[in-house]
Amino acid sequence: MTLGRSSAYWSANRYPDPEAAPEATAPLHDLPPAAAGRFQVVRAGLLAIDGVAENLRYMGASWRWSWEYGVGSRKLCWLHVVGNGISTTFTLSDMEESRVRALPRLPADLARAVAEAQRTGPVRWCWLELGDRRIVDGFLTFARRKGEWLGERPAPHRGPRARGPSSKRRGDSEAE
């Protein structure tokens, strides 16, 4: 999935070799100072969200190496180091999308990322360039909210009803 970005965009990933995983802090040394500072702020902000863990993953020939953030098995976002900048991809379910649209003062960049997202099945894949500190701060505000949503217990679902009398198993007789 290229998320509306050209293959030329993704080919500029600074860490293309599937056999050579970068250090988690590599962008702090490899990026120009302003972008490295934004990476440091967004990484620290994501790791400060309750229950969020970081995983550095090779995501195939398109995304290559990405920093993946999740709450348990549920994904919060991915950070990409492409060229001299950073970007993020995040997903939204239908319920999360309606929650995002209901947020007061949703930053314009984030609203645009949601509006331009690609849908695959029940999920919207949103991409956002983290080109300045204002965008990073707006994204982190959103990420904290999404982290809370991911940490919520799913609504309890009623289990299937047993068929037939519940006190008897097949083969049980009344006379036992």
Summarize this, please?
The chain has 176 residues and is α+β, with helices and mostly antiparallel strands. The protein has helices spanning 7-11, 26-30, 33-47, 60-63, 94-101, 108-115, 133-151, and strands at 52-58, 65-71, 74-82, 85-93, 118-120, 123-129. It is 36% helix and 24% strand.
Explain how this protein is built:
With about 180 residues, the protein is of the alpha+beta class. About 35% of the residues lie in helices and about 25% in strands. It is built from seven helices and six strands, in the order H-H-H-E-H-E-E-E-H-H-E-E-H. It has a six-stranded antiparallel β-sheet. A hairpin with a 2-residue loop joins strand 2 and strand 3. Helix 3 runs parallel beside helix 7. The N and C termini lie far apart (about 60 Å).
